Amino acid sequence: MIWYADIRKTMNWTFFHKLGSPKWFYEISGKWLPWLAILAALMMVTGLTWGLLFTPPDYLQGNSYRIIFLHVPTAFLASAIYVSMAIAGAVTLIWRIKLADMALKSMAPIGTSFCFLALITGAIWGKPTWGTWWVWDARLTSMLILLFLYFGVIALRGAIRSANTQARACAILTLVGVVNIPIIKFSVQWWNTLHQGSTLKLTEKPSMAPEMLWPLLISIAAFYLFFTVALIIRMRTEILDRERRTKWVRNAVEAGARS
Amino acid sequence: MSVDVQQLEGRKAMMGLIRRDLKLAFRTPGQSLNPVVFYLMVASLFPLGIAPERETLSQLAGGIVWIGALLAVLLSLDSLFKGDNDDGSLDQLLLSPHPLPLLVLGKVIAHWLTTGVALIVMAPVLALMLHLPERAFPALMASLLLGTPLMSLAGGIGAALTVRVQRSGVLITLLSLPLYIPVLIFGTGAVQSAVDGMGYAGHLLWLGAFLVMGLCLAPIAIAAALRIVVDG
After folding, report:
1. Residues B59, B132 contacting (CB under 8 angstroms)
2. Are B171 and A162 in contact (CB < 8 Å)?
3. Which one of A179, B66, B76, B219 has the fewest CB atoms closer than 10 angstroms to its CB?
4. Predicted model pTM
5. A253 touching B, CB under 8 A?
């Protein structure tokens, strides 16, 4: 790790370590949280009401396509959160920053929920569109495997007692998983195209009318914001729990009890 | 000590570790044969559960033989580091001056020699019983030859992460399964192509590529996992 020492010497890392301080994060996130929550709620309401009530029905799928405004954001987040977890895992292993592990731990259940929701909404959408709840299509299969990856991270954390070991073991696991994700994607695509022809093309993006695209983009942004809010709330709880022996947490809790 | 001598010593230690593990496995033949017996049982459940007809089975045979091998490897993973952990030799392994990835590679090779090889030997017998068309036998053997060491390597990561966990069987399965899915896809893909009378070299080349990648990366991941879990 010579390169790392060099980088450390040449760059000013104080901001990075400040960012990694639970106390600093707790204070700053407390200020952001209400605004983020309001913004997330506003955008969620706008995106979903626009999408579900005011967009024109699709010429082929009628009204059933409207689930896209839930399905696409959840599917986006399901993969994005796993990659974020891997990044947090790398930060945990390299810089031993506690906050990164708190983020990893807090992201896992949120990502699992989104992955599950993406699968469920996909199945509900599949029934009227393809006439079946489930198809062993490449995308569906890789999503299911992603759910297993999430389960693995959560189960491993549950099985290990020491918090320090938990952090680094889960970091290793998410990194192995993130190397594995492209391999899985590639191999299920190969497997799918070998066995059946192109009956369903989920991989090609439909060219979308702007009156449908805009509410979709707003929903995606709203779900990202919602994820951020949920993550911050979970991380703040995690910080209080892990730092409960420090003075600032005791002060903060006492101040909260008094007010 | 110069670098060359160190490398040589490391390799010697790895060979010694393989010899030791093989000796241990041969001294407890009952335990080492467990995966093979399990393999036979799983494979014989499929005809009972699906259909005994030749036509049906010959279509499914490749998948059954592969899934059976995969489950048998999963079953055997628990013992990869557990025994060494219980008697304290795992701590000695971590304390040794030799590079840990090399040592765990030795452990994985020994694991493959005791389980993977036995499964490969069993496979043609099961394939015959399940009426796999004869033209698919070379593909089956070649894909297992490349796939079983890959499963030992990838499974080693899960085994290392759970070495200090009580009753880790299901957890190892959960951690290893996503890594096994590409192996299964390309392994059964090769057999299926051969059954259909098509070329299967592409599948084998991919399996080979994954094996090379596994040989390079898995020992490092296993070593890191062991250090984390055992040293805390």
Report:
1. no
2. no
3. A179
4. 0.88
5. no
